[in-house]
Design goal:
The chain is built from 13 helices and 13 strands. With about 400 residues, the chain is α/β, with parallel strands linked by helices. The structure holds pyridoxal-5'-phosphate.
Length: about 400
């Protein structure tokens, strides 16, 4: 029988790509007594987290916080900007892009789902799930839309189901080169504070993010970073909204308050997380994630297994998708690793279920926690009878020993 919190000894190895391990410093902050969310102390907390979030999103414009998982912030992005039946151009990078597209359908929008056609010969997996967004396909489609029916382009920055990032600046350039007025909406739920993301510089109109990935918090709060154009569009958008409406939130936030009861204790945690992130600086954090990702890729290459990401230029710094050989059940391997070594790995989602697993390398981890995770994976693959070309653990040790730490750790 499974009992909560009954791990044998030591901490469970949470190797999924979010929720990521929550540092003790943040857990302690969350445990402080809940305060009056209309009182003066709260206003200080509210203003502090809003200003810190602007720095992490790299924006001068408002960021809305919702007491909801990331899915809520997806919905907020669409219902605040769109009207019934609006055409939206979405790009199929993986399972999360697919879920956002399904949500657009349920909300009464007319999403068009662009994808690279076909399957990969080596793995039999959909090609579009192994590559980032192809900005030229977006540009081509927008140029054909001479009547400007398409109201928004929606892309996922770091596709958590595959371990592939997308070049958001290139998507912006494609929209501008087509002279198209569509809004650019970006899901950076698993990208923010781990993979480089620049809201203003990249001309993103609405970004969607969540607490449980690079921000190292438990799940439960999510965000929309806005542009002036998105705020303007929200005044004429006609999809029904109330709880998700930006207007009252944005109006009350400068005073440090929200129109409803905010998630006080998670905001304590967010305040601590922002201190940790901004004390170190975003460039150090981005470099550290790239270094971890390179170490994990060295291991996967040494095992001789394909990676879900087939394009060297867009490997995710946040997670790595590992494809298991035809005829093996990746979920059975995950279960074996969990039961034997107390290590959780991400499952294959949607079209890649059973064909791959995901190793998270984000937030509060370090070289040795990653080495432990890789050791658990290597032992599990061997026990499952997966033929390995060599030792990924040895390759990763060589990588981490040789690759210098970013300045600041
Ligand atoms: N988008 C991406 C890229 C995600 O990784 C996730 C969750 O992992 C979601 C959306 C959905 O967010 P949530 O599960 O917090 O509702």
């Amino acid at each position: 029988m499974i009992k909560l919190n009954q791990h044998p000894t030591g901490r469970h190895f949470l190797g999924i790509p979010g929720p990521s391990p929550v540092p003790d410093r943040i857990l302690r902050a969350i445990s402080m007594p809940t305060i009056d969310h209309r009182g003066p102390e709260f206003a200080h907390l509210g203003k502090k987290v809003l200003s810190g979030l602007q720095q992490v999103f790299q924006t001068r414009h408002p960021v809305a916080i919702f007491p909801a998982s990331g899915t809520g912030a997806w919905e907020a992005a669409l219902v605040n900007t769109m009207s019934p039946g609006d055409a939206v151009l979405m790009y199929e990078t993986g399972h999360f892009a697919t879920l956002w597209q399904k949500m657009a359908l349920r909300l009464g929008l007319a999403p068009e789902f662009l994808a690279l056609p076909g399957v990969c010969e080596q793995t039999g997996l959909p090609r579009s799930w192994r590559q980032g967004v192809q900005a030229e396909l977006i540009g081509e489609r927008l140029r054909a839309d001479t009547a400007h029916r398409i109201q928004a382009v929606c892309v996922v920055h770091n596709e958590t189901s595959t371990g592939v990032t997308s070049d958001i600046a290139a998507v912006r350039r494609a929209i501008d080169a087509a002279g198209h007025p569509a809004l650019l909406m970006v899901d950076t739920i698993s990208g923010l504070a781990s993979a480089d993301y620049r809201h203003d510089e990249w001309g993103v109109d609405v970004a969607v993010s969540g607490s449980q990935k690079g921000l190292m918090l438990p799940p439960g709060i999510s965000f929309n970073a806005l542009s002036p154009k998105a705020l303007e569009r929200s005044k004429s958008a006609r999809l029904p909204r109330s709880y998700w409406a930006w207007d009252e939130i944005v109006a009350m936030n400068p005073g440090g308050y929200w129109p409803y009861t905010p998630n006080t204790n998670l905001l304590y945690g967010l305040s601590e997380s922002l201190d940790m992130i901004l004390e170190q600086g975003l460039p150090v954090i981005f470099e550290r994630h790239q270094r971890w990702a390179a170490g994990v890729r060295a291991a996967v290459r040494a095992w001789g297994l394909p990676m879900q990401c087939a394009d060297e230029r867009v490997h995710s710094p946040v997670l790595t998708g590992v494809v298991t050989p035809h005829g093996t059940d990746a979920d059975a391997i995950r279960k074996l690793i969990h039961d034997r070594f107390d290590l959780s790995l991400g499952t294959g989602l949607g079209k890649v279920k059973g064909r791959m697993f995901r190793i998270g390398h984000l937030g509060d981890c370090n070289d040795l926690t990653l080495m432990a995770a890789l050791a658990g994976v290597e032992m599990g693959l061997k026990l499952a009878g997966v033929p390995l070309a060599g030792s990924g653990v040895a390759a990763a040790m060589d990588h981490f020993a040789a690759a210098p730490l970013a300045a600041g750790g």
